[in-house]
Structures
1.
Amino acid sequence: MKTSSLWRMMPLLAPTQLLLISVIVIPSIYVVWLSFHASTYGQAATFVGIENYIRVLGDPGFHSALWNTVVLVVVAVHLELLIALGMALLFNSGLWGRRFLLVAVLAPYAVSEVVAVAMWRFLFDQGVGPITVLLNALGLPALEWSYEPSHAMIMIAVLTIWMHLPFTFVILYAARLALPSDLYEAARIDGATRLQSFRRVTMPLLGPAILVALLFRYIFAFRMFSEVWLLTGGGPARTTEVVAVYLYQEAFTYSAFGPASATAWIMVAVSMLLASGYILLLRRQVKNAA
Amino acid sequence: MRLERFLVNAGKTLAVVMILLWSLFPIIFIISSSFKPGREIFAVPPQWLFAPTFDHYVTLWQRWSIFFQGLFNSTIVTIGAASIAVIASTCAGYVYSRTSSRFLNASLVFLIAVRLIPPIVVTLPLFPIVNNLGLADTHFVLSVLYATFFVSLGTVLMRTFIDQIPRELDEAASMDGATMPVILWKVITPLAAPGILAVAVFVVVFAWNEFLFAFIFTSTRAKTAPLVISEMIGSIEGVDWGVLFAASTVQLLPVLLFVMAMNRYLVAGLTSGATKG
Amino acid sequence: MSYETAFRLNRRTFLGGAVSGLALMAAGPAFAQGKTLQVLSHRVHQTSLGEGDADMLAAWKAENNADVMFTTLDSNPLMDRLFREASLAQTDFSVGYMVDNRPTSENATLFEDLRAYQDADPIEDFDDIAPGLVQGMTIDGRLIGIPVRTATQGLFYNEELLADAGFDGPAKTLEELVEQCVAISAKGRATGMILASDLAVFPVMFARAFGGDYISQDFTLLPDPAAMEKALTVLADMFSRGALPRSYATNKGEELLTWMQQGRAAYSVLPFARMGQLADPALTEYAGKIKVTAFPGSETLAADTAMSSVVEAWAMTIPANAVDKELAWSYIKEVSSRKNTLGMALNGNGPARVSTFLDPELTSKNDFAHIESEVLANARGAFPPFGEAARAQQLFLEEVQLTVLGRKSPADAVAAIQSRIQPLLPA
């Protein structure tokens, strides 16, 4: 279409762009300014250069928060992907009551983080939690998530997987459904076993969908806040603190706006890094579509 | 051969049972516990047969009236956010579907890239800005925030859906002298209804459940239900678990039923949103 | 999967929904209408004023045609929230409860100077309010809070659980306390002691039992490092021997009361004032069996040194950006009256008025009033206020938790506390 019609369409584009610019872009730029200043309640900002960045990057508390975040992202997201892939293939292999099962699998998507935390905290309560009681009755060790940092991390990972599995599953399931069945027919005629057709046909064709699901989940898991804040508060002894919790504490508990802003921009940088692959992919698609 | 078939079926059944347990057990447990008398919540082993009681709901109503105000606030904020997001993304989605230029492609990338900024990053500067505008603790500010974090996905979704509507329809209307807003309103909107629903499902679920923004931007007037529940978790004294479960059930059920009813739109949205952009 | 248009949304319905949504949004703020005083506090401040029929503010509410709405949070989140609210252009909270170790020269400017209010419309018998507490709320010459609650820490114990393990009375020394706790846990019916890991109060008490401290009133960090090391050693020992629950690192201040009410722990450290909730048969089946005494010092503590307990004071402030300051002052004045101070004390609030401690109505009702006033005589704050106090407390607790869980030696933790917190102290 011609440029003139593009201009006529501007009013239609404006609400979306205005929202994004005023709510996300401008505040983010203000965060850059804040990150080069020291300020707190009742005190004017003074320019300190890159001191805030040096302070955050040199803080052992930040290192451990970053490390915990990376561990959670790597472990939880990949586990989630494996489970989702298994489920997608299971659903595709023909199941009774698939429609109902799909609704059941989607259910956790409707649950708020707050309620999910209340649920899992109670189920795993170290005194009275039903799962703890069950594990003990079976002679199995229960999760001591308030004592063992690794157990606390497992709790957080379980909660994250529970809440986001529907998302990953749906993407993979839809992608699997879209695969043409004649390919499998052909593979079967060629005498391929189930395993072979999975490795040679399913995996390569599902590749893009898996990549998309992974990138999405990397980006979203990296900003994880509520699960950790409400479940462990970063404890025991700050061993499960993640980057977003670190940022919150700097900003709203210690009222140190400079270091908090520096942390914020470090988060943005890491997210962008994670996403650059995704954006490249997207650009290619936009080009193809054009 | 028969044995193999039996094993495969047994395995599948087991897997299905595990999936159901994993997805539904925590939810059913919370809901059923909210109807259990206080002490039976902690009974070992859990009681599946019990005389249901509404005690916890009565207590919730009497002692936590603030929770119901939270539900009211959540409702307003959710409707507001869904309206803003749907209108903005339908308009933008239409433009992206019907026109293309270098500028538009770039702005589409911008649309997605902006979304990569973690929400917690903007809380810090938005907090004083929202204040100085006198918008702190209003339903409006939460609605706008929630809508903003979904217009990117919403626009991409709407573009995908509108792409499926034949251009000939717009062109015919255009020949008849209809202006663009009229075309959008009379021709596109009715046909893109599934897309609109898909966008709405996402925004509704997000706005109804969101915690972080509500935690930071509201204090008394616009406090949403999840925030009240988090305060309940914090101030629980002993046997109050029942009240917490009752509140959780009330907060959870509407959106759970909504998601179940709308599952096809959710799935449609997730697939086209994630794979197409 | 086919998601074809099986469903066609009626445009008018949709528009109707959107419009009514926006209309509701506009009407929204009107929801909390009428004359309502918003108060930001800890739950205990609300309960001590009485609820329902026992509401001590009933007459004041009727007279002012006002209602009081409390938003209650646990101690640390409450302070985060109060300062955030006070930094806004305007806040709905006209009264905020502040703990005495948080005001600093910087943040005190966010609150009204109440001296002017006091001069114009004085609180009844103001000089009766403990002068030390008033001093603590006077920052750079400005009185920013009216003291309303003292929380002096005492040692609570459950007689029945003690007797169960063969002890006929509470421990007289710290060493004895540890042994009793270990024995009670070993018995299996309850845990020896429950402490919270999110407040500095508890490790500070243990350090003081050995004559040490965390940060002294003149800002000396760890005035006696050896004492802190001994304190951490004792705590870690208690944990490893099961005298503290395995969930120690996530136990929050609010939970202590629950554990005691349910008989899940035999000992805890709580403000004396909490006895109200531990002696009420409606709240605990151990009512009457839970007693309180002074927290014991170590047997190594020199005979002439008294164990100094932790006292925390709360004051009512008016944020400078509050909407209804007149009503706020009227509330503060009402709550601070002699009558209401006594009423709150009877509901289990540590009074801020000196005379209330001696009131016969109170001393006849609770037999521990004399113990409390003795402990209070030697008590001081957990740490003095300074700008980075919140961060320092967090670092301190991190080191304490690591030590208690056995992940760090007490000596290393003491060294870390010194090197990490020293830079945060005021010069």
Note: The beta strands of chain C are 36-41, 67-72, 93-99, 138-139, 142-143, 146-158, 191-194, 265-271, 290-293, 311-317.
2.
Amino acid sequence: MLMAAVLGAAAVGHAQEVEKRDTLDTSYVTAVKEKMRNTTQTGLMRLDGNKLRSTVAAFGTPDLIKSLQMLPGVAAGNELMSGLYVHGGDGNDNLFLLDGVPLYNVAHFGGFFSSFNTDVVENLDFYKSGFPARYGGRLSSVVDVETSEGNMQEYHGNLSLGLIDGRIQVEGPIWKDHTSFNFGLRRSWLDVITVPALLYVNHENHNNPKAHGGYAMWDLNARVTHKLSKDSKLNANFYWGDDNINAGLKEKESESFMDLGVRTTWGSLTSSVSWEAKYSPKTNGKLMAYYTRSGSDIGYTFDIGSIADGKEKSMLYFNDDNLCSVHDAGVKYDMDWYPNSSHHVRTGATVAWHHYATGRKYEQRGALFALMNEGEPEGDKNEIGDKYSAWEPAVYMEDEIFLAYNFTVNAGVRLSLFGTNKKTWGSIEPRAALKWMIDNDICAKLSYTRMSQYIHLVSAMYIDLPTNSWMPSTPEAGPMVSDQIAGGLYFTPGNFKINLEGWYKTMDGMLAYNGANAFYPPLVNWEKSFTSGSGKSYGMEFETTYSIPKLELSAYYTLCWSWRQFDAYYMFPFLDRNDNRHKVNLVGNWNFAKGWFVSFNWNWHTGNRITLPSHVVMSDGGMFDTVYEAPFNAKLPDYHRLDLSVDYKWDIVEDGRHLLCFNLSIYNVYNHMNASFAMLDQDEKGNYRGMAYGLVPIIPTLSVSYKF
Amino acid sequence: MKKFCILFCLAALVCSCEIPFAIDDISDPRFLVECVPASGDSFYVMAAYAAPAYGKGRKDSHPFKKGDVEITVNDKKLATESLQWTQNGNYYTTLVSGKFVPGDQVTVSVKGDGVHTASGTTVIPPVPSIASVSATKNTDPKDTTGIKFSVKLAKPVADGEYYGICISVLEEMYFVELSMEPPFVKLDTTFYSFHTTPGQVASMADVNNMDLDAFAQVQYSYGGLINRHMEEEYSYSPMVLLGSRQFTGDTYSFYLNSSFSFFDIFDDIDMGDTGDTDYEEPDYTEEPEEPEEPEEPEEPEEPEDYRILIGTKTWYEIEVFRLSEELYNYCKAQYLKDFDLLANFGVSPPNFTYSNILGGMGIVGGISHVVTERIPHPDNKEPEMPDLKDLLKELFK
């Protein structure tokens, strides 16, 4: 009995050394980061919150997604946007988890800023291949973000003022050693900046017409942790982020008025309650209930009418709202079990209820409306839309098996169902990863994964707009499936870390918009405007990092091919728009003097692809018809950019507890205008050429923060 | 000085926004081939030399000669050595005579010096079988969309089946012609016909749906060739493209005179060259039963020229097409070319590039069609002969 207990404890120690992140002790992550080769999975990168906060930030605000864009195997898409195209993926196939809860809308302001406030991020795991069986539901990547628990002993905080936003983060004990909180709030103040401008304009117009408007984004994170015992604790997490744009104009004459207003709101909310417990030295588990929603409302109001006796009376009134939303509620349970020194078993189950809705509400009324519509006095009020509900249960099991000759296998399977009122789909997803420790400093890995995705992003555009909505699979637009094989070699000689990884991925059931260009995708029967196809991606990544105290230099290189086949576009395979064949990133952080830090990031990649007319057929009179040979047939000029950041931390009272931090960030230091889009153009001699247009110049920003 | 510096900086930024770049490696010269073999008909092959837009290997034209086209039907080569090409600008056409039937697999290859051989294959689809057609007047007082047509096929439309619809309106105008000579009063008719465009079921719900597919249409020539370059020689009718999802089971319903047209949305946008045709776009907002306004009858100088309109009858002919998948995709791509603005900005999918020509561009796509019998307008009635006394009064007043 005693022997069994000793063996059990030894097994736990061994397994936890490999994957301590999965136990209760998350502070271990930073130390594990440098031991990447110890994980069995390929394609896993771990970043801690400090690392994220120290990366160069456009507009002075550290951005989680833009940090991921720098990593190998990832294409960023349009400049400044929060695109994340992993291993040839489509950008809508990444699973974002915030404290284990799926987050659908991960960007603010059309994609300029990600929804994650880095002040409260403890760490993140980013999987590009070798997905463990505990993750499922998306094809291309998993971004598992965990927020920090509040400090149980003392209060700390951070106040920041940036170019476009302000942030506040406070943490501390509610009940010392038992209960803590961590609270973060971020808000932009572009609307505050526009107030004086509007006041001036309205003053000049004597408030007639009177204009109003502004844009604001904000997000709030809150986490409360309560220790029930030394082996169990409760967590409550909350996130709420919104964007709001509104603009309007009101004009009054002596007997008439006109009121015009447009408004857009979109955002997400997640909340969860979880209970983590260590049941025995060999077993621990986590039970969680969660709710998440994401949605948007885009509308306008138009009202003209008469004024009599000081009262306004509508003559013609329109109100229009376009709505879309997704709501999820679910329960999941995960368990870790260490039966002996050779096994680490993870198993769990989840069941989620989804509700998807898209629609339009409009109202038209007034005497003029009645006149226009043959005297109908009541006007017209209507609501259209589609609503879907779905259930998604899933179970998984994976076992990390420590074999002889330094081999480790992580074998698992995930079974899932997705049922709507029209159809039910099922998926069996095998996952396997093999690691061979060839020597202390070198190992080889190989993995195979199958992933299924039951939801689709309904969008007519490549940019992140509030008009986009999530919809479930339907009989006409079934689930997407990907298969990926990845393998690599990993060295850690001295202060270097060198990784070389390759992958081959196929994606089936992909959807692409196949209607006329429009900002609004279809609101009902959305499948009518989409066509299905497949994709294929392969390539290799090279990563090297040199680390010594106070200095870290990294270089990443990606060689990638990304193909698509959509028969309705073109009957042959064609390169994807994000086929950035070569990509190089150089990243450095240097603490060169006490309190002084400098970071840089140089990014170069082959240009995105674009569709341009490839041929001309000359017609009578010198006119010509343009012909397109294939989609994405042209390549934009190469993209390159240098970002620089200098930080100075001033220890105000020299006790290390009160820091005033100044940050100067320069985005696109040498002002290289990278191509955002291109068109067909003629030079002075009449020869055709491509003409690209750059939109983003050098952007210097200054921010200041106070940490205590 | 300060203002100058600001202006200088702004100007420097703006100037640097334009980045010319060479893209001369994206293509060699190709042939553009368009060929739509139809059931029960001969077909044309149209070919054109498409020069790389960026100059590489470019020449002004490429005259086709006999023997430059090869046609294979069901793996059997047709004798094409003597086929003559007709030039129209830089486009060349040749007529392939014969009577092709559904199920025929047709391969067309066009070759020429210094250019890749371009070839495409299609199978002529089965002729659509129409079970019934109905025309009913709309009774919804909120809907001002006119007559509703329902075309019911013999069996439900399956996924992967593609159709097209053309509709012709035929109007008979009845006149009484009065003259000084016997028989003094004579009944005369004048016949008008025009092609028009069906609107999708144009209730507000569908309009709000923004289902732009419902308005996808191409110009179709009666010879079986979709040819946006030959409008001077052929007459065209607008063909509305229908995927299986536009059908409800076996039935497709549409309103002829929609109060809403897709093009209303784009009234303020330059639609580019949409392929001018020799038919005039009808005014969809008119009441369907009203005839095109006849020319104002001139005041008769001589009483014998006097004509009085006493009635109008309207019929409709619906032509239902079955399209091969590749032809449907190509037609839709041609239609979507008019809306490619956002795709050129790189923010929207380029859904206007379809081709099934190996080594070139264009389409070899099969089609078959059937025409319904004339469908009378629900309000049609026999014209009533006016009272002779009144007519004579009119004549001699």
Note: Chain B is about 10% helix and 35% strand.
